[in-house]
Amino acid sequence: MKILVCVSKTPDTTTKIAFNASNTELDGNGVQYIMNPYDEWYALVRALELKEALGGTVTLINVGPADNDQVIRKGLAIGADDAVRIDMNPPSALNVAFQIAEHARAESYDLILLGKETIDYNGSEIGAMVAEYLDLPFVSYATKLDTSDGKTATIQRDIEGGVEEVEVDTPFVLSAAKGLAEQRIPNMKGIMMAKSKALKVLAPAAFEDKAVTVQYTLPPAKSAVKMIAPENMEELVKLLHEEAKVI
Amino acid sequence: MVLVFAESQKGNFKKTAFEAVTYGYKTAQVLGTECVALALGTAHNAADLGLYGASKVLHVADAALDQFDSQVYAKVIAEASQQVGANVIVLSHTSTGKSIHGRLAARLSAGSVAGVNSIPTADGGFKVKKGVFSGKAIAEYEIKSEVKVLSVMGNSLQPAVVGSAAAVETLSIAVPASRVKVKSVSRIEGIVPLPEAELVVSAGRGMKGPENWGIVEDLANVLGATTACSRPVADVHWRPHHEHVGQTGIAIRPNLYIAIGISGAIQHLAGVNNSKTIVVINKDPEAPFFKAADYGVVGDLFEVVPKLTEAFKKFKAAE
Q: Using CA atoms, how far apart are residues B208 and B137, in angstroms rounded to an integer?
């Protein structure tokens, strides 16, 4: 199977968040970046498992500046064959999806995989956008993906309060949720091999952004926790009713 | 005009749809226009959408729409929006809504913001906000395209009754064949799914073992709450995977989140810190969760939780 895995770079959840003086951009100083876990742990690893079972190739794609190469190299160290980076600082999700679709259209992948969302913006938009640009089926929130011939796949996906099982023929786009695969840690051999794998840098196609971030603000400070004595649960119930008004 | 895609389950419109219509109604007021709801497939109580501000309901009744496929839905919603000349399309930020949202944006060359949590403003450009970076910041976006697509974060506003039952008009749109075959759908019956739950009782490793969950379930039953758990507990199969809330599990934003024996790792907080009120019960006064809590109880959960259940029982009886 010829598989494309879209990977994104995100600030680690535990990192401190600060913005530039005009509050228009994230201040990257001191921010620890990682590969988006849904892309890495589930989408990429399931792609590698399919390649191991059925043969083929796994290509990574990232839309971002040169700093992102570190994250892309990690994906190559985990086992992807090669990578493409579209060299830009994308201002919108639609732009990212457009760039991915422009690349994918020419390559005719059997399968395009990505995480169900990034852990920074949680928009969950890119997969659906890429699928629409390429006129392909899109299966979201997949927790299980099986195919014995690389042509027809059976997928389990999370839906509101339950699970759905679907069948779809390749090519299609799939977003990965927890359960699709298990995280793989790159080994020394993988890290060494990654250095010589191809990472192609391409110029972006022209695209007019339609939605852009204008400003970031910090949420209002949380008021201090009110401690209640463990023997006084009537007091807690009273506060939840009268003060918080949630019951 | 603002067009709201109202999600239903087996033809029943519930809170998720009412929230989206309320959001669409308030957005229409900002823009000085009307709000129209769109129902796809079987629809039993579509007229109820009028209560929340839909001036009418457009209904594409084709039974093929009872099976969900994002490609088919996006085509039908895009077609409907073009027929009625909608400038803003509102969806729910649910697994269904999220699967359609990006498609609509790409199909209609529309600017989009996914997971908005406040009503847009229209002075000097169309602007709207959402929470980002695990709740550590709020981002404001400007959408410049003529057509705009928004998905509304669950529980970010309360459905408000502002009108009366709406007229339901049949809209005729050819439904394309789906390329995704739905083989089976299984839903857990009888409980409010976590993303929609207003009250959630959640427990973690402090419970010491799956056999001790009775006190958590008793508390949830008294409250009418949905039960949840932390990741370590789901990973060792003390509780089912679908109960796992947090960054890699389900993100929730109930009115009340009671965390029992959960230390509050940042990955857990990322999925629950949008809850309106957080109660933390933990024997360790240094547990990081207390910093994110509104109310805290330091104590042995095996004593505190039954006491809290009793206190809720008394409160319910007195009501």
A: 35
The nearest alpha carbon in chain B to A179 belongs to B241
Q: In angstroms, rounded to a whole number, what is the distance separating the alpha carbons of residues A170 and B10?
A: 29
Contacts of A115 (CB under 8 A, 6+ apart): A8, A36, A37, A38, A39, A40, A42, A43, A175, A176
Q: What does pLDDT average to over chain B?
A: 96
* ipTM of the complex, rounded to two decimals: 0.95
How many domains does the structure of chain B reveal? Answer: 2
Cβ burial, residue B95 (10 Å; 0-12/13-18/19+): buried
Give the pTM. Answer: 0.94
Query: Is residue B64's pLDDT more than 90?
Result: yes
Q: What CATH number corresponds to the domain at position A52?
A: 3.40.50.620
**Which B residues in the span 210-249 are in contact with A, Cβ-Cβ below 8 Å?**
223, 241-242, 244, 247-249
How many other CB atoms are found less than 10 A from the CB of residue A23? 16
Low-confidence ranges of chain A (pLDDT < 70): none
Task: Judge whether A22 is closer than 8 Å to chain B, CB to CB.
Answer: no
Is residue B202 domain-shared with residue B164, that is, in the same domain? no
The answer to the question of residue A241 being in a domain is no
Which of B212, B196, B192 has the alpha carbon at shortest distance from B252?
B196
Question: Each residue of B33-63: b (16+ CB within 10 Å) or e?
Answer: ebbbbbbbbbbebbbbbbbbbbbbbbbbebe
**Interface mutation target, options A14, A41, A94, A120, chain B, most CBs of B under 10 Å:** A94
Domain count, chain A: 1
Q: Measuring CA to CA, which residue among B217, B307, B202 is closest to residue B261?
A: B202
Range of A8's domain?
A: 2-218
Strand partners of residue A175: A114
Yes or no, beta carbons of A209 and B144 under 8 Å apart:
yes
Contact (Cβ atoms closer than 8 angstroms) between residue B166 and residue B55: yes
Measure in Å the smallest separation between the Cα of B59 and chain A Cα atoms: 22
Q: Residue with structure tokens 């999700």? A: A93
Residues 109-168 of B with CB under 8 A from A: 109-115, 127, 131-145, 148
Residue of chain B with shortest Cα separation from A224: B294
Q: Helix-strand-coil percent breakdown of chain A, rounded to 5?
A: 30, 30, 40
